Known about the structure:
By secondary structure, chain A is an all-alpha fold. Chain A is about 75% helix and about 0% strand. Chain B has one domain. The model of chain B has no long low-confidence stretch (mean pLDDT about 85). The chains are: A mainly alpha, B mainly alpha. The interface of A and B includes residues 69, 78 and 81 of A.
Amino acid sequence: METVLQYFSINPVFYIFATLAVIFALMMVTSENPVYSAIFLVLTFFCLSVIYLTLEAEFVAVIQVLVYTGAIMVLFVFVIMLLNLGRDAQLTEYAGPMKYLSILLGFAILIQIGLATKVTFSIGAKGAYPIERVNEMGNTEAIARELFSQYLYPFEIASILLLLGMIGAIVISKKRPD
Amino acid sequence: MEALIPFIPYLMIPIMVIVYLSTVPIMIQVERKVSAWLQYRMGPNRVGPLGLLQPIADALKMLSKEDVIPNHVNKWLYIAAPALMVFPAFFVAGVIPLGVLTIAGQDVMLQIGHTNIGILYVLAISSIAVYSIAFGAWASNNKYSLLGGMRSAAQMMSYELPMGLSILGMIMLTGSLRLEEIVNFQMNSVWGIVWQPLGFLIFFTTAYAETNRLPFDLTEAEAELVAGYHTEYSSLKFGMYYLGEYCNMLTASFMVTILFLGGWHVPFLGSLNVDPFVKQLIQVGAMAFKVAFLMFTYVWVRWTLPRFRYDQLMNLGWKKLIPLALANVVITAVVMAF
């Protein structure tokens, strides 16, 4: 019997990259320079993708790099550089005393999430796609089969939403003839 | 011999590093000589016999130059960015197969990692290279560099879309993301270029744009931007960008060969009456030959075609290549359904 929790506890790679992900995420939030924030966010995404790899979900791992690191964050960096936010316009908004309360609440949520995952992961039943079956049929095939059969409707709706967003952006940015 | 089989992936690591590293000096020489021939010049002919030691002289020059770090740069990023260029360039070699060898009755793939997401891995890792250019440009704190970096970010974003879409046709035909499966599919039928001529053309074009080579080298357009993103770089840091560019070209050539030119497949080799092991070695050689020819094409195109204007580049990417690639996917799907 190997539950997800046991899997985590024996995998040092997970611990290394989970720690790094948390450190990079903290540095992303705390750094004042937007370009540094973008760099740390990219590094966080990388660590996440390694964690996916330790779970033998290589398709999700590679899509994480391809979509988030390779496309979305490039756009972020592009906009930051285009607006030249780097040097002068450093982020100087501070929360004041509310900061300490938010840190406290953040830790409370963290503990709650930790407790919740401990309960669900250790007693969770096996689904239709346990790790042996996924390995047998291939990671990508398993995702594709589920996505285009059982979850076809939500998938199509999400696609149409994204398409609407694209068309909307084009319409807004287009010059109106007046 | 059988005990050797589990160690083949580990043996492939130094081999791939040597393949990538040895390509760069060869390409420097080819670039100089071919450009000279195309322009009716002699080219380098002083260092060594026929000027063949010129790459060594070039490398020594690059190593021994003063490493200038300008005062106004963002020091950490300025130093890290060139290294970031070389990292994905070598990292991507992890899934590229060079051929098959039958050792002790077992087919062994000459490849470091056998993953079932081969193509996606190559696309994902090579899409990281843009950060090196963008961050290097930004850290230089120079407006020409910044313009070059921004052009590069926009260009690589725009051309990644048609590149991914042009591969889709081959993936649909093969039904696999494994590079070795795609080669096997072509060995059992015909080369991908026959199946997907449009896909080949689009992929070939985008490969030039993704590697920032002429006619798409808007990121370093000398006439407009001094030298683009590497204006402020000198010595080995500039050398790292140089190295990364040639490694990316090699990866792109490998991908074109594997996807559309049959990989290590040699036509009519089956009817030849030689030892199977020799045949497999010939196949590895054929792969090397195809890749070398594509690398030569890079140089050929560079010294033949003039540079695009930036708006032409964007128009070509968004208004021509993406619709064409989408049409290619639809046509492939319709033909496959009937």
